[in-house]
Amino acid sequence: ITKVVKAGEADAKTLRRIFDAVGFTFPNRLLASTEAPDGCPSHIFRALAVTLLACFCTDPDLAGHPQILNKIPIFNEIITSKADQNDCPVKSMIDDAYQCLGAIAATTQGRQQLVSQGGVSALCRAFLHQGHGCSQALGILSGILSTAMAKCWKKSMSDLLALLGTLSKEFCNTEDKKKFELCEILPHFLPPVPFLLKGAFRKECFQNLYTGLYRILNSKLSASQSEPALKLAGCLIASYGSDWILAESREVQGKFLALLINLACVEVRLCLEDLTPEEGEAKRDVVAACYSIVEFGMMVCAAEESSSLTEEQCTQLVRIMAEAFGAIIHYLKQQVGPDKVQDSFVFLSVRLLSAWLAEETASLKEAICDLLPFLIQYTKALFERELASGDVSSWTAELVLSDGPGGPPCPTDALRLLLPGLCHLTAEEGPRRILISEGAPALLLQYFTHQWDVLRSSQQTSDIADGVEMSLRTSCGIFLNFVVTEPDLIRKEEAFSSLLSLLMSSLPSLVHSRKQCILAANFVTLGLMLSRLLANTPVLLETTSSKKFFGAAVIFLSKAYQAKTDPKDEMMRLEVSDCYQEFWEEISELWFLGMQAFASCVPLLPWIPELVLESDWLKLIFALLDHASPMSVDMELVTAFQGVLIELAEHSQQCKKFILSNGGEEKANLYGMAALEQCLHGE
């Protein structure tokens, strides 16, 4: 029976009939038998049982059967046995055990059981001992690690590190075709950062990997040789940055990194420009690895702190990378249609291009403008797909979902990737016109609303909440660009009235949260800037919602400064308050812009002065001016206070009376507020 099955002469239906006839009782009895017949090897019954189980495992349904899974410890024992593995019957039994383990690893439940029952460690040890069939162990391990990497490393870290050490050493020392085979294998065994130990092992492992790749990439290579090397380099860059490039000097490290980025850019252009769509399809994995290298190159060249690259190298690489991005734009424009919206490679291409737009909008501007309609429609399609799922809690902070190196990435939140680039593009006339014509404001409002719902969801982790908050803040920057440059659009586009309504209802819950201070600053300033343009619309009638918004805005604006004695000269100075000090670098421009916008709203909304009086903000301003030395107050702050005080005095007799009764004229004179002084002297 086993010979017939192994020869492939039994179809699935026949195999199932054989299994039904034999069942698990017979192989279980064979495994339980400890005494062999006279003249037979001691393992004869076990070998026959494993052969039967290997036959059963040719049926994928049977490979995940509990009676197969509970034999994993036996298979582990067989492949790691110290018995004479040159003995033909023993070899056959080991081959059968590997066949069982491979079939088990092909099922989801089987992989889980292999991890929990020590299968990963057994496979590592089998390879390290270089026994019969050990090459099969690497293939099975690769499959398990590609779908359960973190669990594998958590359970079997010492064995996996030993295996990685052996593979990296062989990679460094081998000078034949095996070196290129190892390029394909090694990415599966690179551990997540927390599991890569520090110290001697880390240094030795990285040194071996760098040395091996240096020898490959500095040689004349065919495509079949360079591609595996680039894939390995891409995995190393994606996982460890440039930490693994342990060159003998900073100069050599810089040259190697520049070479790597250059080769990656050339490969991207070759695959996306020169190959047919069918040929390019076969190269996706190497291009994806090159994307990781190019993205790291962008980060290094954009970093303010000097890296191992010289300024001249960075300039050259930016020019070379621009050519690679030209190829990506060409690919997205020429080859990507509506049927590829959920294509993971398209997502990776948009992801990398979005990172480029966030850093470099001046380069390739014409080509980028031509591509903007595609980018808006693509991100919109993905976003609407997410919305259709109806589960806000499923929204993820991850930009690419993958279970390990080589695992297929899944498109997720593409619009979030594009936001930083849109923040730059909406500040420019040409791109902004295109974005408006493609309906970007309405899409951004829908996205903004959704993200706000996600942030409010109590089910989100802190990592997801941080990512969502950042996209909300970036969206505010985009909306501010529209508000400043397109006032007519704001007044007629319904999306902006809806946006103001959302800000008005949301700000009161943010303004008292220290953790969300930066987001509150964005909401305040954007809301006030919108209010200047929409003061005559129904959204800003004297309603509870609008009053609560302006009341929250007053709270935010009023808490920015405090009077403090400087121990050096005993002078009382106005300083940023303790609650804003940590965030001031990020919110100071928003605060000053918010003060100007608030002042502009006073003449447009007659009920604001009364709200200010009720809030005691005027008292706080004059208390600060009373305590501080005029010489210590920055002129920009004086101008901000003056702008608010003038509008309140001009449009409210009660406010003017309060200012006068609190020494307003004297303060105006002391602090050089000539415009306020003139206003207070007027009738």
Automatic annotation (TrEMBL):
<dbReference type="GO" id="GO:0031175">
    <property type="term" value="P:neuron projection development"/>
</dbReference>
<dbReference type="Pfam" id="PF05536">
    <property type="entry name" value="Neurochondrin"/>
</dbReference>
<dbReference type="GO" id="GO:0030425">
    <property type="term" value="C:dendrite"/>
</dbReference>
<dbReference type="InterPro" id="IPR008709">
    <property type="entry name" value="Neurochondrin"/>
</dbReference>
<dbReference type="InterPro" id="IPR016024">
    <property type="entry name" value="ARM-type_fold"/>
</dbReference>
<protein>
    <recommendedName>
        <fullName>Neurochondrin</fullName>
    </recommendedName>
</protein>
<dbReference type="GO" id="GO:0048168">
    <property type="term" value="P:regulation of neuronal synaptic plasticity"/>
</dbReference>
<comment type="similarity">
    <text>Belongs to the neurochondrin family.</text>
</comment>
